[in-house]
Amino acid sequence: MTGSPDHKQEDGGDRNTVIRLQSYLHGGTSSLLSALPTLFVFPVYKTIFRQQIHNTSVHHTVGQLYKEGPVKLYRGVVPPLLMRTLNGTLLFGLQDTLLRHLSLSTHNATSAAALPALAGFGAGMVEAVVFTPFERVQNVLQNGQNDRHLPSLRSVLMRLKVQRISQGYYRAFLPIAVRNTLGSSLYFGLKGPVCVLVAGRGLSPMGSSFVSGTLTSMAISLTLYPLSVLVANMQAQVGGEAKGVMTCWSALWKSRNHSVALLYRGGTLVILRSCITWGITTAIYDRQQQQSS
Q1: Which of 23, 135, 208, 252 is an S-S bond match for 199, by CB 3.0 to 4.6 Å?
Q2: Which residues of 4-40 are buried (b: 16+ CB within 10 A; e: fewer)?
Q3: pLDDT averaged over every residue in the chain
Q4: Domains in the chain: boundaries
Q5: What is the dihedral of CA 78, 79, 82, 83, to 10 degrees?
Q6: Which of 97-111, 166-180, 186-200 has the lowest mean pLDDT?
């Protein structure tokens, strides 16, 4: 027997809800799977971080980490693993939700092409609000200078808790917000067109997604790398004099002898990390989306 229009409308609403929830699930799953290699590449990530805050060469940084030993090498690995999984769930799911809402309110072909980037911008802002505390804790833990007076995750959390919010958990929120909104906007705006372009070269759909995610994230990482260096330097310490973003940037630029090359120390390693994580994430996410559509 044919259902009433109200029942049909309810069924359609349920299906739409399931479709919207799938993007959150797929984002979390793809990020979780791509986060597993983080255990292997975390030493690379930590090397980048040390270069960012100490302005040292790769050789010197690796030697420093080697002397600290394998136990301290993986100090701070929990926040990025947790953050990576939750980040993918929120970023992909929220971007898809915003995109669906924006698509209903526009009928212009030109503006419709920019909607993925616009939705990515909104998702990036929410991402910054949610995950700045994670990044703050991670950067404090990875700074070897904090090992003695902040020896554990609990000690870091307790110390940040008593700080003013702008100097505690949300230290460097402004540059993080700029980096995340621009990065997410560029990622979601470019990955589709790049994937189509790569697919035209004869690659499989999953291969095209992997290459698209890799190239897009590589370009974004290198473009926004100075902001990541600024964030790392602002968040690595706890306490001390409260300095604004421009003051911190001036101090950072001066410490790098006004050299772009020194500012980009560790930038080549960002390419490796992007290839592993965002390439895998994009390929798995697109694959899941295609299977469920």
Answers
A1: 208
A2: eeeeeeeeeeeeeeeeeebbbebbbbbbbbbbeebee
A3: 83
A4: 8-292
A5: -160
A6: 97-111
Note the pTM of the prediction, 2 decimals.
0.81
- Give the H or E element holding residue 283: helix 267-292
Mean pLDDT of 172-199: 95
What's residue 1's pLDDT?
47
Residue 231: CA count within 13 A, CB half-sphere: 27
Instruction: Determine the number of helices (DSSP H) and then strands (DSSP E) in the chain.
Output: 13, 0
User: Rounded distance, CA 200 to CA 281, Å?
Assistant: 21
Instruction: Give the C-alpha separation, 60 to 218, whole Å.
Output: 25
Give the pLDDT of residue 8: 44
Q: Which residues contact 69 (CB under 8 A, 6 or more apart)?
A: none
- C-beta neighbour count of 71 within 10 angstroms: 7
- 3-state DSSP: the chain helix, strand, coil percent, rounded to 5? 80, 0, 20
Nearest to 84 by CA among 127, 115, 141, 148: 127
Tokens of 241: 């004099």
* Sign, CA torsion 144/222/249/126: negative
More confident of the two residues 277 and 192:
192
Q: Residue count of the chain, please give it.
A: 293
Q: Is the pLDDT of residue 110 over 60?
A: no
The answer to whether 145 touches 111, Cβ cutoff 8 Å, is no
The answer to whether 175 touches 140, Cβ cutoff 8 Å, is no
Give the CATH class of 8-292. mainly alpha
How far is 141 from 136, CA to CA, in rounded Å? 9
Contact between 263 and 253 under an 8 Å Cβ cutoff? The reply is yes
State the residue for tokens 């705006």.
189
